[in-house]
Amino acid sequence: MVKAVNSPGKTKLAFTVLIGAALVWLTFSLGQWQTGRAQEKQALFDAQSRALAAAPISPTSAQLDLDNLSYRKIELRGTFNAKALIYIDNRQINGRPAVQVVQGFQPEGTGFLIPVDRGLLLRDPAEPRRAPNMPSRSAGDGEPVELRGTILPRFAQSAELRGLQLGSVDEISVEESNGFQVWSNFSVGQFAEQAGQPVSNFVVTLQPVGQTAEAQATAETAQQVDGFYHLAVPLQAQVAKHKGYAFQWFTMSAVLVLLTLFFVYREFYKGNKT
Q: If pLDDT is split at 50, 70 and 90, which confidence band does 123 have?
């Protein structure tokens, strides 16, 4: 009779241990995954920081190894192409409507253009749909200039930094205003077609990029440079976020272990008393 009474308790005990072990394994595995993601993000952040601190380069090729050259400073001499000039719509500067200026830059001695994020221009509140004028002598008059900027990782990742949809976009809307083209987003193919020249596989931003606390603090403060508004672009490591998630999962694992032990003890204790 005792064996018959204890059998259901042992089954329940085994089921409790099985469910508890499965939940502990699941939450612990998720904690390990988040820890791995934090390590990956930390390695990426460290590589980006080293690239920003490295000496500037002067590439003469339209195709770069972006895995190794992203966030490198660039120094080139060349000219801005007045035909390869577009505005990206729906940008803001301290809550005020603005456009972002992307213009093709041709390095000396080459036949390709580099899309350059030159900064932002405020719209006129009195005429919010009228495209703002370019700063004087900035549209591209054929006069050589020195380009100093930062190579962004790739067109798709530019969106993470600046909100620019630079990459393979099937549909864009183009609005003609005040003699300028205002695009809803960026298309590499359409940009090359408009300019009539090949376009590089990378984009250069003239806005400051950095991982310092100062860059973080000034990320929302616009500075005027050569008539354009620049906003600091801090690197987003996101390491702390993944570490926080990992801590939550590991804590849950510990709680589940304690709960499982509690239920096992309770069932064992009840079984012994029976």
A: very high
| pLDDT, average across residues 133-139 | 78
Q: Which residues contact 132 (CB under 8 A, 6 or more apart)?
A: 99, 121, 122, 123, 124, 178
Confidence of residue 270 (pLDDT cuts 50, 70, 90): low
Q: Is the CB of residue 37 less than 8 Å from the CB of residue 31? A: no
Please give the Cα distance from 78 to 73 (Å, whole number): 16
CA distance 52 to 56: 9
The label of the residue with tokens 């919010």 reads 128
pLDDT digits (tens, 9 = 90+) for 192-223: 888 889 999 888 999 888 755 455 555 557 78
Question: Can you read off the two tokens belonging to residue 209?
Answer: 């990029």
Q: CA–CA separation, 120 vs 100, rounded Å?
A: 4
For residue 21, the one-letter residue type is A
**In the block, residue with structure tokens 């090949």:** 198
